[in-house]
């Protein structure tokens, strides 16, 4: 019995999956970027929380207390003015000498028009609230006209009290030091984190590069470094590489032994047939022995693949010219074209067998064959085109299977082993590449070999 979710529960689940797919697409794909994001994002969130708490608690608290003290001083001046109306000059001098504020009495009149509120209005709001609570008189406030001063005008019964005070008297002006300290320490932490992340990720990239090089048939120079887990993975890769090389070596030794023993038997057959009188039966037997030897060589070539050969730097122009020369010696013509940097790193014998199988397969079923090779920064791409009958699209995957045959197909060797394309594909994949079949501009089949560099 199967259980299914109701539509009301399934829709949020589908929406949640879609949401996370969108978030995943926005995240960086590289390991270094993701690791840096894991380190930096919590740090930024922490700094934002600290800044918010500091703004709400420290700045607001200190600013309110300073604004309260400044308002109390102004209220005291107003009380003294009302209590001793004739001592205004002495009052102003006391305000300047004792309270560190500049105060003066202006003739009574209307207050200036109200100024627009500043965006960052902690001082403005705190002072306004304290003046309303402690003084309860009409007032005018300017906290943005001059950066380091605050001007307050309060409407009295007989005059206007104008007070000019330093901004630091009502505002924690050294708070920027905290912000600079946070930004500076965050920057240092990010730089240090980036340095250590880079050192931790370099061994992983080195391991990935060594695995990629080994997959292309090359012998990478790799030494495990980094954290304990990364070094453990590196040593595991080295041990795996050794086991694969031992397996390849054992298979190569076994194939060489089998090849030697079978060739010895075939040689005895040939000698026996050579000593027999020439007749129609002996000629047929000689053809069968030659066919058996050719099939044996094809089977061993498929089983051996590219084992035992190291990748070396070759000149692709000379390499393709050798293929063209070999085709001309067999009385066939192949057009060759190449573009890009000629020096590439390949297993030359194996890769020559790969292209020879593709070219030979095309020549068996076409009149004209063309080979076009292009090298860019990442791949070596070789197109083998012909004007033959081609292969149906439905069978283009199957023709790479060993011993696969189709009626009137082109994947068969001359004598019918059915291993030519299978060997070519195996060699291309041993270089980390692949072979694809498609329609050729010449009207026949195009075989495209793509090998990473």
Automatic annotation (TrEMBL):
Q: Where is the HAMP domain?
A: 198-249
Reaction(s) this enzyme catalyzes, per UniProt: ATP + protein L-histidine = ADP + protein N-phospho-L-histidine
Compartments reported by the entry: Cell inner membrane
Q: What is its EC number?
A: 2.7.13.3
* GO annotation, cellular component aspect: plasma membrane
**Membrane topology classification:** Multi-pass membrane protein
GO molecular function term, any single one: phosphorelay sensor kinase activity
Keyword Chaperone attached: no
* Pfam (any one): HATPase_c
> Where would I find the Histidine kinase domain in this sequence?
257-453
| UniProt enzyme class | transferase
InterPro entries documented for this protein: 2C_sensor_his_kinase, HAMP_dom, HATPase_C_sf, HATPase_dom, His_kinase_dom, HisK_dim/P_dom, HisK_dim/P_sf, Sig_transdc_His_kin-like_C
What superkingdom heads the lineage? Bacteria
Q: Which UniProt keywords apply?
A: ATP-binding, Cell inner membrane, Cell membrane, Kinase, Membrane, Nucleotide-binding, Phosphoprotein, Transferase, Transmembrane, Transmembrane helix, Two-component regulatory system
Q: Where are the transmembrane segments?
A: 31-55, 176-197
Q: Gene3D superfamilies, per this entry?
A: 1.10.287.130, Histidine kinase-like ATPase, C-terminal domain (3.30.565.10)
* The protein, known as: histidine kinase
Source organism of the structure: Methylocella silvestris (strain DSM 15510 / CIP 108128 / LMG 27833 / NCIMB 13906 / BL2)
